[in-house]
Amino acid sequence: MSTFGTLFRVTTYGESHCASVGAIIDGCPPGLALSAADVQVQLSRRRPGQSNLTTPRDEKDLVQLQSGIEHGVTLGTPIGLFVKNEDQRPHDYSETDMYPRPSHADYTYLQKYGVKASSGGGRSSARETIGRVAAGAIAEKYLRQAYGIEIVAFVSSVGKVRIPSSVASQNGDEDNDDAEDILSLEYAKLLKTVTRQDVDANPTRCPHAETSERMIERIVRAKDANDSIGGTVTCVIRNVPSGLGEPVFDKFEAKLGHAMLSIPATKAFEIGSGFRGTEVPGSRHNDAFVRKANGTLGTATNWSGGVQGGITNGEDIYFRIGFKSPATISQAQSTAQYDGTPGSLAARGRHDPCVVPRAVPIVESMAALVVMDELLLQHSRKTSAALLPAITTLPPTMVLPREAEKSA
Ligand SMILES: Cc1cc2nc3c(=O)[nH]c(=O)nc-3n(C[C@H](O)[C@H](O)[C@H](O)COP(=O)(O)O)c2cc1C
């Protein structure tokens, strides 16, 4: 369905070639200073036509806030917002209408609904993500102001070009599982320090300049061959309090995975050490507890990616998402029409040769929506529990003293 979240609820609407796309955001705390400019920053990072690495569809994607805000302050009532679709060219698709695009959503949408949008990807188009990005920007502003939470995503690979092993180590020697760190110290440092400014310094949104150059070559090679290429986006969320996540079905990483895999073109999600964590023994993988400089308990390493038992532990949360090579390519492909007649499709229209540079703000926004919703849920639990008298009848190991509580 088109609604995400429990207490911070976002409903998006719109198709690729309809009049507008947008969202209703319900549950935003009242009293948040908010202007269109706060939302526009992320929409402009998402918009098409930013460089020759993305689709030439020229949309300014200027947001119009409709409700829920007066004199620059949220009222706590639903926030309605939209962006006009301006550079539509539905006729680009007319010749190809006989064919469901291989690996796109044309066939499945028609099978499911029995009717589909006449052109473009309809609801499956990445235009839909505008509503999410706008909502995520609002959530992010609250998270930054209330908790100092920072969310930074970046492109970590394009095709086989990835941030190199000196920065992000890969496991090599299969007989010696003690030999290498799951993730190198340099990579851990990158996750600790990377900023949006670093990310936006390169058109690929890979903060490692040398790798970015090689990524550009890879994307241009795909484009010149009328083809496309995939990639990965890594995201880190800093300063998240412990205690977020709703076991057992709504564990924090399950909600993150849900959010990320709802982004078009995603094929994979891993948190913390992810698949690499399966290659080392527990003695290397465990995150030992230590007293931190500020006196609180934390972990010496963070292969868990900031989540244990489906609940945040106060360490940085980091995860990686795999995006497939976009389906629509102008290279001729042997395929079949809707009625099964074999043929060749060379898709027309304007398309992204690689989606990851534009996916970065979408990933950040979905991360913000998850953190925001989980924070509000934990807040309601904590606030209601705090109204009760302190627990004095249980053994001390069973109860967290109120003064020691550092979660939301
Ligand atoms: C930022 C972004 C841009 C995209 N641009 C295109 C595109 O130009 N052409 C295309 O075929 N798919 C594009 N996609 C992917 C499609 O929306 C998506 O792959 C398609 O609807 C099929 O759904 P699925 O891949 O999630 O199964 C894009 C995705 C994102 C996140």
UniProtKB/TrEMBL annotation:
Please state what class of enzyme this protein is: lyase
The record's remark on the cofactor is:
Reduced FMN (FMNH(2)).
Entry keyword annotation includes Cell division: no
The protein's superkingdom reads: Eukaryota
Q: Which GO terms describe its molecular function?
A: chorismate synthase activity; FMN binding
Q: Give the EC number.
A: 4.2.3.5
Q: Describe the reaction catalysed, as an equation.
A: 5-O-(1-carboxyvinyl)-3-phosphoshikimate = chorismate + phosphate
The record's section on CDD domains has: Chorismate_synthase
UniProt cross-references to InterPro entries, sorted A to Z: Chorismate_synth, Chorismate_synth_AroC_sf, Chorismate_synthase_CS
GO cellular component assignments = cytosol
What is said about its interaction partners and assembly? Homotetramer.
Name of the molecule in the record = Chorismate synthase
Protein source organism:
Dentipellis fragilis
